[in-house]
Amino acid sequence: MKIVKTVEEVRQEVKAWRKEGLTVGLVPTMGFLHEGHKSLIDRAVAENDRVVVSDFVNPTQFGAGEDLESYPRDLSRDAELCREAGASLLFNPEPEEMYAQDACTMVDMSGDLTTELCGRTRPIHFRGVCTVVSKLFNIVAPDRAYFGQKDAQQLAVIRRMVRDLNFDIEIVGCPIIREEDGLAKSSRNTYLNSEERKAALVLSRAVAKGRAMAEAGEKDADKIVAEMTDCINQEPLARIDYVKAVNAETIVPVSVMEPPVLMAMAVYVGKTRLIDNFIYKG
């Protein structure tokens, strides 16, 4: 596996692979990789001849006061995980390589897809996501790109962007990977102290309660949201940003459990903002 820092190096490698008739998969990440990321890389390696993993903490998706500077980084650890998983290329650019000093072009999206859920409290987030993912798609030109369902709204946004902008790329969504006790794997879990780590399990408990209600036939989405909210509110260290039921493809709020429904939440545990969800498919 090669580790490269420039756009030109990535393009040279991909051009060589294309000359051999090889297929290419892309796994976009912000680094500090864990088992959730590894599951994406494993899937990409199984379905493509060559796999590029991007390892880039993208500054344009962080708002003022968010954790850009403190976001965890460990390139050597990331490289080892990618190597073991069978990735072919690790792309680790500096911000200056991805964004020219006088860059003035962004990829934006309107409507519920980017203004609901996380978009309500992180208004520039998805513009930054769409911009950097578009750039990675143009740099790598993969056959397939892999994203996790934990970031379900992001996955819906990327699918719509690919459709709207006619990217010739298959978007592959992959299941949430959890710790043994149920907590969804996240790079931000490292922010939690031992007491907060225990408290964070309230998210997966709320997910389990909501899923059980949906699978038992409850059709009132508001009732499921209320039960999940009550579950979270029983944890003193938890503070809800949102718990909502939306259409999984459009992110439009719903009151009836007509599939596909995304039951999504963002919850602060201490100062750490965590997300979790499940999708009801009927």
Q: Strands, helices and their partners?
A:
Elements: E1 2-4, H1 7-19, E2 24-29, H2 35-47, E3 50-55, H3 75-85, E4 89-91, H4 95-98, H5 112-115, H6 118-121, H7 125-140, E5 144-148, H8 152-164, E6 170-174, H9 194-199, H10 201-215, H11 221-233, E7 238-247, E8 261-269, E9 272-280
Parallel strand pairs: 1-4, 2-3, 2-5, 3-4, 5-6
Antiparallel strand pairs: 7-8, 8-9
Helix pairs in contact: 7-8, 10-11
Query: Which whole number gives the mean pLDDT?
Result: 97
CATH top level assignment of the largest domain: Alpha Beta
Strand order of the largest sheet: 1-4-3-2-5-6
> pLDDT below 50 for ≥5 consecutive residues: which ranges?
none
Structural class: alpha/beta
Give the SSE order as H and E letters: EHEHEHEHHHHEHEHHHEEE
CATH homologous superfamily designation of the largest domain: HUPs
Shape: globular
Question: Which fold does the CATH topology of the largest domain refer to?
Answer: Rossmann fold
Distance between the termini: 42 Å
